[in-house]
């Protein structure tokens, strides 16, 4: 759609609002207020405009459109006043048609249970990679990278008490946000952490002391979300722990209580004990579709959302591993990180490397069709699954970056042919629910 501003000083200014990331008529795009082109000596005569017409509907536009995708993040931080000044310069130069989109409205979502709710970015920055095994993390470089992700709109970070310095890095990061960004920016930042306690008696004081450590490390009065993990279901202490966590929530020490790696049976027991769980973080990818077989249906009935990890399988779901043979030395990238090794075992359980190559080829066809990466398609496919609120992408802070691929997820629309071809390729593998069990059972098998 298009709207013409009724301003006598700008009679030819046209604004486009589109659900597509780009339009076929756009020939140029600009970083407003960052790298603006000065066109004061260029005059666009009236005969340099074109008319779009269909029946009684018509609109005249400048044939060179100012594309505003770059304001969505990933090209540098946009100052509002500088951006508007830049738009005025373009309009004064006769470049009076602006193209934008509303598709970034789906960037955030709400997880909730009763009066407990938290809005998060649907693509979550996973910080397991700070715990070691992915390369040495420099503290200052890591925090700079976190700010860059947040400036791009990727404002939700996931960590755990056992992820090395992750909570400490978040504490440094959130303080820089407080100092260097406006208050409204701070309002969108979310820090989700996990508590993975030893199997000791879950007393109120033990739970409280443990959570206070995370609050201190993250430098927050209240944790946005506390995701609870429990190793052994034969020990019913998980219910005691969750009840104490609920008490801390009522005191304002925690905003929302959630789970990680719980199965459907235990989730039902927890909800029957009137513990207000808003989400369950589980492993979920095109290879591992277990959450859609039991968990998702129950979540849809109860309102609990899924936050997924392992969605790009540590990077295995990428062009990097397409057309490779790991059985031949040096014929494939090394599986040299904990995540690559973990998810390679998942591929083995699913059907093996040869079958996985067929899946990668299918994903590459879809990715090429849309002009995106395999990883972008892999995440979007899972985000479109029932009950999924957000998907994790691990960040190697200061070592590697995938902001553009992550941002592209929000404008990608998979059509029916895409979905059917991906589903067909995925279903060629083994049923992992039968091989491994329900969500989280991979951590509890003898």
From TrEMBL:
Stated name of the protein: Uncharacterized protein
Originating organism: Bauhinia variegata
